[in-house]
């Protein structure tokens, strides 16, 4: 009898053990299928996701690859005539441009969405901080764009401060947030004979390629630094000075432009490595802003420019001669080396997306600083500005890209 009871107990124990194993197996199989065997919901808008388990979606979200989409519901973010900081160099509507479609194009990345700009969120992120744009007139135009975008949410004019006394530095401040957005004129980044913000158009351009302290000490201690330097380098050679402009014993030498450009960027990177705390300061470098001065490059007439252009270039991957790939590679190499030394500077690649926008330049619709000659009046292409950009317009998208990194915490892996 005792043996029979022990046998029954053993059978019951074996049964419970087997049942437990079967239940565990069912649960494990269900979990495995739910994670690996079943279709996964894809958060990306185009339904094509290659993100592996454990990786962030930013890996496949390249904000710089996409297309322009006409959107007259959410654009423009601000009105030209309502921005108190608008520049006459960029106010195309004020100076007679009748077509307005250039204001309504939205950049749409292929595999994600560009975050919608929110001026209040930007100012909150900049509370008690300083953001500074450093560079040439293209960077100044981007600064105007950012100030117009940010100030559009400030309803009380007394809560804004603006200061420009003819120096290299222009300041905008939101008093409520104690948030400062500055622009500093340094068209070649390093010291040059073109550093005067007004009188800088000289017949011969000279750079002190190893000297940046005069400029950099004005903006190094900022929380966000946005640099650019490209347009002023566009000549075959640059005259380079080793020495001082004030003394006569300096050494001058003509050097190939790309080499001098590389030396200037290396001077910049060395300064930043020593003087910037990467835990406190975010660094950005704006890539080349392309020009549209030769209509034949996109199938237009010879000897014509961006004048009269109201449509986009629809050839994907289009590149004109207004941007130099060799200079882009120099920037990438210098920033890669800087990152290996422990300081990350994010390049905001505006080049390709701006290449498509032959419609976005002021052309003749801007203030003319000098009286036009009769020959120019008869040939508008001869004095059209196909370098800068109308506002609202393309630079607003550049700032939306910046916004994605500053406010929305986008990152590139």
TrEMBL record:
Q: What is this protein called?
A: Trichome birefringence-like N-terminal domain-containing protein
Q: Which residues form the Trichome birefringence-like N-terminal domain?
A: 60-113
The Trichome birefringence-like C-terminal domain sits at: 114-404
Q: Where are the transmembrane segments?
A: 12-33
Q: Where in the cell is it found?
A: Membrane
Sequence segments annotated as region (Disordered): 39-58
At the top level of its lineage, which domain of life is listed? Eukaryota
The membrane topology term of the UniProt record is:
Single-pass membrane protein
Pfam families (alphabetical): PC-Esterase, PMR5N
The positions making up the signal sequence are none
- Gene Ontology, cellular component aspect: membrane
Tell me the organism.
Answer: Eruca vesicaria subsp. sativa (Garden rocket)
Similarity remark: Belongs to the PC-esterase family. TBL subfamily.
Q: What is its main location?
A: membrane
UniProt KW keywords:
Membrane, Signal-anchor, Transmembrane, Transmembrane helix
């Amino acid at each position: 009898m005792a043996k029979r009871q022990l046998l029954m107990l053993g059978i019951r124990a074996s049964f419970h053990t087997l049942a437990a194993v079967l239940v565990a197996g069912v649960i494990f199989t269900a979990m495995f299928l739910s994670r690996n065997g079943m279709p996964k919901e894809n958060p990306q808008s185009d339904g094509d996701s290659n993100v592996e388990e454990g990786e962030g979606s930013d890996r496949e979200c390249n904000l710089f690859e996409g297309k322009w989409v006409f959107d007259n519901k959410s654009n423009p973010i601000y009105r030209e005539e309502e921005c108190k900081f608008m520049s006459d160099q960029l106010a195309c509507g004020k100076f007679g441009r009748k077509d307005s479609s250039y204001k309504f194009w939205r950049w749409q990345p292929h595999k994600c969405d560009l975050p919608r700009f929110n001026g209040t969120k930007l100012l909150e992120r900049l509370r008690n901080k300083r953001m500074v744009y450093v560079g040439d007139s293209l960077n100044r135009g981007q600064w105007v764009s950012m100030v117009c975008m940010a100030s559009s949410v400030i309803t009380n004019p007394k809560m804004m401060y603006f200061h420009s006394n003819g120096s290299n530095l222009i300041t905008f401040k939101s008093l409520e947030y104690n948030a400062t957005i500055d622009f500093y004129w340094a068209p070649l980044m390093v010291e040059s004979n073109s550093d005067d913000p007004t009188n800088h158009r000289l017949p011969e351009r000279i750079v002190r390629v190893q000297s940046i302290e005069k400029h950099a000490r004005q903006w190094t201690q900022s929380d966000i630094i946005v640099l650019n330097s490209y347009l002023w380098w566009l000549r075959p050679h640059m005259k380079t000075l080793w020495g001082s402009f004030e003394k006569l014993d300096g050494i001058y030498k003509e050097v190939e432009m790309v080499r001098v450009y590389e030396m200037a960027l290396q001077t910049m990177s060395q300064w930043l490595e020593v003087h910037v705390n990467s835990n406190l300061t975010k660094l950005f470098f704006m890539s080349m802003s392309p020009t549209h001065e030769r209509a034949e490059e996109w199938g237009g007439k010879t000897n014509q420019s961006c004048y009269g252009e109201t449509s986009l270039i629809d050839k994907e991957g289009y590149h004109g001669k207004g941007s130099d790939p060799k200079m882009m590679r120099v920037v990438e190499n210098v920033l890669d080396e800087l990152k290996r030394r422990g300081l990350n500077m994010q390049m905001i690649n505006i080049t390709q997306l701006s290449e498509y926008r032959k419609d976005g330049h002021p052309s003749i619709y801007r203030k003319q600083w000098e009286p036009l000659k009769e020959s120019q009046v008869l040939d508008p292409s001869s004095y059209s500005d196909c370098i800068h950009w109308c506002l609202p317009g393309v630079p607003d998208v550049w700032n939306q890209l910046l916004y994605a990194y500053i406010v929305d915490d986008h990152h590139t892996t």
